Amino acid sequence: MSERHYHLDEIPDGLQIFEERVEVMGIKYRRDDARAFAAGRGLTLEFEREPENSHDKNAIKIMGRRKTIFGSKCHFIGYVPSGVAALIIEGNYYGSVTPRLLKTYIGDSGYVEILFQVLGPKGQRLKYKKADPESLPLAALGKEAHYTAYVDQVEYLKQEKRYDEAIALLLKLVAETEKEAKGKNCGVAPWYYEQLAIVYRKTKRLDDEIQILERYESQPKAPGVSPEKLAERLKKARENLGKHLT
């Protein structure tokens, strides 16, 4: 009989989620250890660098610790995915990030899956994600990078109050989602319009807020609550402009 368990201990003070859902890699080569860990109790995970790894200079092992009658037992169960390991090591976050066990699954056939989150210092998630424009230049948009890759960058620019840059980026992203919607005959992604409206309101550009919301209103829309939400925002923006003019 298969076993699936969700864990998620309380997040310690001063930490936040850097990575929401990460799979332990290489479990198939350590299935006995992974299975013994996942079947245990009092489960925790630990990171351990492996600088001698010839395949990946950023390699980070994942050690699974379970409680036993005599204390605890540690198992080498796999690795952090290379992309996440690179963010941790190259960003100098090793030692300040920690794994948080999310899920363990043991299948009838012996298949084992272990998922975890990465926790790091509060307020540094976007820096960790390399969300600044230098890390992902606008020139890559529509070529090496899809418009969805810029979400963290939008949040980063807003957090840093670099509103002019955020507006310039969001206008490009809106154009990209409209281009994709036309090519695929589908609805536009509303998040980018909403973020522009938010930034415009923060910077007291009421006319621009109304224009971007009217632009969204004229586009084909995907199902969901966003059309109603943005229609209500447009109504409120028009009311605000009316009050401003009186």
Can you offer a commentary on this structure?
- By secondary structure, the protein is of the alpha+beta class.
- The protein folds into 2 domains: 121 residues, 2-Layer Sandwich (Alpha-Beta Plaits), CATH 3.30.70; 116 residues, Serine Threonine Protein Phosphatase 5, Tetratricopeptide repeat (Alpha Horseshoe).
- Helices cover 39% and strands 24% of the residues.
- Helix 5 runs antiparallel to helix 6 and helix 7 packs antiparallel against helix 8.
- The relative contact order is 0.11.
- The mean pLDDT is 93.
Broad CATH class of the largest domain = Alpha Beta
> What is the mean pLDDT?
93
Note the total helix count: 8
Which term fits the overall shape? elongated
The helical percent reads 25-40%
Structural class: alpha+beta
Report, as a whole number of angstroms, the end-to-end distance. Answer: 70 Å
> What's the arrangement of strands in the largest beta sheet?
1-6-7-2
Rg is: 23 Å
Judging by the overall fold, what is the CATH architecture of the largest domain? Answer: 2-Layer Sandwich
Extended strand count: 7
CATH topology of the largest domain: Alpha-Beta Plaits
Strand content: 15-25%
